[in-house]
Structures are given as C-alpha cells and as structure tokens.
Amino acid sequence: MEKREFVCIGCPLGCNVTVDTEGGQIRSIAGNTCPRGADYVTKELTDPRRIVTSLVRVKGGELPVVSVKTEADIPKDRIGECIGVLKDIELQAPVRMGQVVAEDICGTGIRVIATRADAAL
Fold this sequence. Notes:
- It is built from two helices and ten strands.
- By secondary structure, the protein is α+β, with helices and mostly antiparallel strands.
- It is elongated.
C-alpha cells in the first residue's frame, strides 16, 4: 500500500489529507473535514487539472503584453502545449477584458480570455 499526503485547496481550511492507494486504486482518504477534500484528492489522483495563466503579445497597445487565463481548468498534462500555443498568439490593440483569445485551446473545449484591458496607443 502506498500513502500520499495532500493539502486540500477545495476550501479555505487547507486540510492535510492522507490517501492510501493500492494498485492505482484509492483504498482510504483521511484528514478532510468536508466532502470537498475527498473530491479534490480523488480528482488530483485520477484527472489532475489546472487553470492556466499566461501572457499574450499585443501589437499597438499601451503595454507589449496582456494577461490571459483559461476559463476553466485543463488537463495538467496539456499545460505545456497550451503555453506553446499562447506564445504564438499576437493580439491587435485595443484588447478588452474578457475578450476571447483562443476559442478551444489545444482541443480541450476551453476558451482562453484576456484578464485585463489594453487600450491602443
């Protein structure tokens, strides 16, 4: 049996959650004070995902880049691919907060949006 420890990020409590696995299967979860802890750890072990934040170049703007993020979490193993696509994108100013930068990043079905505005010079 293998024992792993996590700090849950499902709520502000930040519980220390211990998971026992055997043969890739979860045998027990302990230490979580709410159901979110068990959900978080299960998801982290079976399908880890993350929100991606990055920068995209802006042509003709006040700043040379604008911050962007995925609207939802994407599979953790696709983050590098996502960043690679974003580095090749260049927007034309003005950029609006919430503007869609990529409609379906890396075939995940998740949009990437601008998280701040950038006016034209």
